[in-house]
Structures are given as structure tokens and as C-alpha cells.
Design a protein that fits this description.
Number of helices: 12
Number of strands: 22
Bound molecules: flavin mononucleotide
Shape: globular
CATH class of one domain: Mainly Beta
Distance between the termini: 29 Å
Largest sheet: 10 strands, antiparallel
CATH architecture of one domain: Roll
Structural class: alpha+beta
Helix content: 25-40%
Radius of gyration: 24 Å
Length: 507
């Protein structure tokens, strides 16, 4: 990595972002780590225990021991975990990034909200000679995936996986799709492609198979910049939209793309590596299992697509990226959250915001400015119908900070009556990654499971909803009603002592 000045995003490439992380003192650089002993995985657990999902630093290991051999990295992890790093990635002013990670996330969200509605910007093609991802070209037998430090993350995983690759497929009906799906290494030049049932990449491939095609040429983007990776890892781009265009909209400039070696597929040029190959559309193989993001081992797939690799192009000294799925946060979420808020406000004008808390996978928080009795449950039901990951949906009033899980739980404790302010949905869409969900024996895959769900209406219940005539006021509100300046006064008098204590506490 090169220019290590402290600067904010958006960044043109992953390595520019890594330089900024290192310059801000938030990179844990390790000389070598023994993944045969699962040291990297254990380190990530320890860092999350110590600093939490929104606080743990990014990590870089220069060399990694894999299958008894030391392999040169660097292998990085958790670069999208901490909220200060997310703020950096999306371009929050450095002076607005501080120690409070909830505030950092909210700053990132504010920045992304200001860009909505997001207008896509078409990618711009650059010549092959100018594309960093083409510095080294490997073809056919020159390729052996074993030479690269792709990790086995957990001893119970079925081997090593490329788990941060973004599959690019082209479909005559829906155009280009870019999706992050794990890729189990199946041979020196063969990887599985785990696009789950209903995922846009799977829709693209199965659509082509139904139209009688036998082979799909495809490419895997590896080591993309934060926005391309976030668009590839979320549903911010709808089926018919192009992730690279939407990423360009957030970046405020076109994503530079370059033509693949073996096809006309255009891929981002500033990434670490491009894996090109062919996906047979009339053949499938078993895949997995792999430790999933709910924190439990996922099910093995009976039949999944795979890719025969023909060409790999990469930068000199490429950076490798492992996602410690189920241990730490996977990608920056403020762009997608801002976009969902914008779109959902068209349906629910009094929506304050929605949030999927990274520390409570399976929960979904929704904040509204309640206007009429019963509307909390009504709105939550709309999200429950399509959001597989939302199993426990908690609705709160506008005064509750949905980015602070503890504050939401305190509202649940004090404002929710389970007997009168809940709704259970018996058969809603769930995720296979939730080990308690109900599978369909005929289909395996990401979106194929059913789950029951509960809506928790933790808004202050109105008398018409069975609540008290006068809901008790909060102690803090009583204080601030009588002494509106109390907190400022204290800050002015003793703020310096509080700051000094914080420093001692952090040391
Ligand atoms: C690190 C990481 C790994 C992922 N692995 C998978 C996977 O193996 N299969 C899958 O269907 N989705 C996986 N996802 C979720 C998808 O990337 C996400 O649902 C995205 O919206 C898929 O793109 P699409 O909407 O174009 O289908 C993963 C996400 C991340 C961040």
C-alpha cells in the first residue's frame, strides 16, 4: 500500500481505502498468522468481544499459513466493520468522525441520505493497458488457486472459500448483475457459485438455462471499492438495475470498467483481481456447508452452480479479503439504508427510519411518527412480507434512536404489552441461514425457507390500543422540560474532566 495520508472517501479502490484506514490508526497489522490453527478466526472473535461489531478495527495479515505452507498476503478483514471506518468510506468529514460509533454511523447515514434519490451514473470504459486489475495475466494451466491465500474460515466449513467475490453475469432480460456469493474452491481452476434461490445472480443463470443456453460466461470481481462491494452485497439495486451504475451514483463519478479477456463483460478496473470463466447451465454439484451470518453452520447445498476458471488477471501484490461471516460485519450498510428509507417513505410518509442492527441479526427496527392507532403493526407487516432477515420486527416512536439497540430494548421493556401489542405471522419468508427456519425439501437455497415472525409494537400505546389514558413521561424529559439547558451547563463546566476520564478509560 502506498499513500498513507489521513483522508476521507469516497475511494477509487479498496487499497486507497486501506491506506486511509492505516493512516487513521485503525488497522491492526500482523506479520504472520497461522490459519491452520484458525488463529485469524479466533482473533476476529476476540476483537468483536472486546470492541463490538461497530468498534473492532480492520486487520491485515502479511502472511498466512494455509495447508502447511506460508502464503504471501496481505489478507485483510473487517475493513467494513467499524462505524468510523464506514464514515470514512462514504466521505464523512474527518472532523465529524469521533469516538461514539452510533454517532459515526448516523453521520454516514446523513451523508448517504443527502444523496437520495440516487441517480445512477453509467460506468466508463478504460483501455486494458490502463487497468490496474490487468497488471498480471494468468491463463489456463498457469492458474492454481492454491497459490493464493483464500482461507478456510471455520474447521467445519467444507474447505477454502473465496467469500468476498462479486459474480458478474449478463442476462438478455435484466442486463448486468453483480452479486456477492461465496465460492467454494473445488480444484485449482474450479469454484462453486453459491447464488441462492431467488438471488438476482441465480435468476439470471436459471433464466438463461430455461432459454436453452448451455454455458454462461461470467466474471468474479475480487477486492472492489467499498461502494461497488456494498451494492453487490445488498438489494439496493433492483433486479433490472445495474449495481455498477448505482455505485457510480454514490461515488459521484463513473466506475471505471475494462473488458474481460475472454468475453465482452465489463468489470471494474481498479479492483484487486478478476476471475473469468464459464458456468455450465445444465450441470450442478454439491456445495458447502459454510458457517453462516446468523452465527450457525449453514446447510450443505445438494446442487449448486460452479465455474470453470479460464483466466485470472490481477494487480501486482494483490490484496486478499476474507469475510469472517457470522463473526463480524460484512459491508457498509448506510447507502442501502438511506435508499430504503427514501423508497419506503413513499409508502409510509410518517416513517422516521428503518435499521437492521448488526449486533442483533434477525431483528428489524422501524421508527414511525405515529398518527393513528394500530398503524405500527400495519406498517411492520409490509416489511415482514418481503424481508427474509426480519424475524423480530420492533416498531418504536420517533423519539427512540433505532441505531442504539439498548435504547430500542428499553422501549420494548417499558412501552410494549405482549398481550395486546403483538402480531405473529405463521408462514412468512425466512432465510436458510437462520437455523430455526423451516426448509422446503424440494428447494435449497438462501430465500427458500419459511419462518414465523413476531411484530413487537413498542410504540407508546394509545387508549384506543389498550394503553393508559396518560402514558407516564420519561424521567429525562421531565428534567429537560424544567431545565432545558442542564446538559449544556454540565458540558461547559466539566466537559474537560469528562474528556480526560474518557481518555483514561480508553487507555
Ligand atoms: C460476504 C458476503 C457473502 C455472501 N454470500 C452469499 C452467498 O453465498 N449466497 C447468497 O445467496 N448470498 C450471499 N450474500 C448475500 C448477497 O450478497 C446479497 O443478498 C445480495 O443482494 C446478492 O446480490 P443480488 O441482489 O444481485 O442477488 C453474501 C453477502 C456478503 C456480504
Amino acid at each position: 500500500m502506498s499513500d498513507k495520508t489521513k483522508k476521507t472517501g469516497p475511494f477509487n479502490s479498496l487499497r486507497e481505502f486501506m491506506d486511509a484506514i492505516e493512516a487513521s490508526g485503525r488497522l491492526l497489522r500482523i506479520k504472520e498468522i497461522d490459519q491452520d490453527q484458525y488463529e485469524y478466526t479466533a482473533l476476529m472473535y476476540k476483537l468483536i468481544d472486546e470492541f463490538g461489531f461497530l468498534g473492532a478495527p480492520a486487520v491485515l495479515a502479511e502472511r498466512v499459513k494455509i495447508n502447511g505452507k506460508w502464503v504471501e498476503g496481505p489478507v485483510i478483514a473487517n475493513q467494513y466493520g467499524a462505524a468510523d471506518l464506514e464514515a470514512l468510506a462514504v466521505g464523512v468529514n474527518l472532523s465529524d468522525i469521533g469516538e461514539d460509533q452510533v454517532s459515526n454511523y448516523k453521520e454516514a447515514l446523513k451523508k448517504m441520505t443527502a444523496l437520495c434519490p440516487i441517480e445512477g451514473i453509467k460506468p466508463k470504459e478504460i483501455p486494458t493497458e490502463a487497468a490496474p486489475c490487468k497488471e498480471v495475466i494468468l491463463r489456463g494451466d498457469e492458474i492454481d488457486l492454491e497459490n493464493f491465500p483464500f482461507l478456510q474460515t471455520n474447521p467445519a466449513d467444507n474447505g477454502q472459500f473465496i467469500n468476498t467475490g462479486n459474480l458478474v453475469t449478463i442476462d438478455s432480460e435484466n442486463g448486468r448483475n453483480v452479486g456477492t456469493y461465496r465460492m467454494q474452491i473445488k480444484g485449482p481452476r474450479k469454484i462453486a457459485v453459491n447464488a441462492g434461490k431467488g438471488q438476482h445472480g441465480e435468476v439470471s443463470l436459471s433464466g438463461r438455462a430455461k432459454r436453452g443456453e448451455k454455458i454462461a460466461k461470467a466474471a468474479v470481481i475480487y477486492g472492489a471499492d467499498p461502494f461497488v462491494f456494498a451494492m453487490s452485497s445488498s438489494k439496493t439495486a433492483r433486479l433490472e438495475q445495474d449495481e455498477l451504475e448505482i455505485a457510480g451514483g454514490y461515488l459521484g463519478r463513473p466506475v471505471e470498467v475494462v473488458k474481460c479477456e475472454d468475453s465482452d463483460i465489463l468489470v471494474p478496473a481498479n479492483v484487486e483481481m478478476i476471475i473469468e470463466g464459464e458456468i455450465p447451465l445444465d450441470d450442478m454439484e454439491p456445495e458447502g456447508p459454510f458457517g453462516e451470518f446468523f452465527g450457525y453452520m449453514g446447510e450443505a447445498m445438494a446442487a449448486q452452480y460452479y465455474m470453470n476458471i479460464k483466466t485470472i488477471t490481477h494487480r501486482k501484490n494483490p490484496i486478499f479479503v476474507n469475510s469472517f461471516t457470522g463473526v463480524s460485519r460484512g459491508f457498509i450498510t448506510s447507502p442501502g439504508e438511506a435508499n430504503s428509507n427514501y423508497n419506503m417513505r413513499k409508502l409510509i410518509p410518517n416513517l422516521v427510519g428503518i435499521h437492521l442492527p448488526s449486533d442483533m441479526v434477525g431483528f428489524f427496527f422501524l421508527s414511525i411518527d405515529k398518527q393513528r392507532p394500530g398503524e405500527a403493526i400495519e406498517h411492520a407487516e409490509k416489511f415482514a412480507q418481503f424481508l427474509g432477515i426480519a424475524k423480530v420486527l420492533v416498531v418504536v416512536d420517533k423519539d427512540v434512536n433505532i441505531h442504539n439497540s439498548l435504547e430500542v430494548m428499553r422501549a420494548v421493556a417499558a412501552r410494549w404489552q405482549p398481550g395486546t401489542a403483538s402480531k405473529i405471522l405463521k408462514n412468512a419468508v425466512g432465510l436458510s441461514t437462520d437455523p430455526s427456519s423451516m426448509g422446503d425439501p424440494d428447494i435449497t437455497g438462501y430465500n427458500s425457507h419459511l419462518s414465523s415472525k413476531i411484530i413487537v409494537d413498542a410504540t407508546r400505546q394509545w387508549p384506543e390500543e389498550g394503553g393508559p389514558e396518560n402514558f407516564a413521561p420519561m424521567n429525562k424529559d421531565c428534567l429537560l422540560d424544567s431545565f432545558p439547558d442542564a446538559l449544556n451547563v454540565v458540558e461547559n463546566k466539566w466537559g474537560h474532566m469528562i474528556t480526560a476520564q474518557r481518555k483514561k478509560y480508553n487507555d
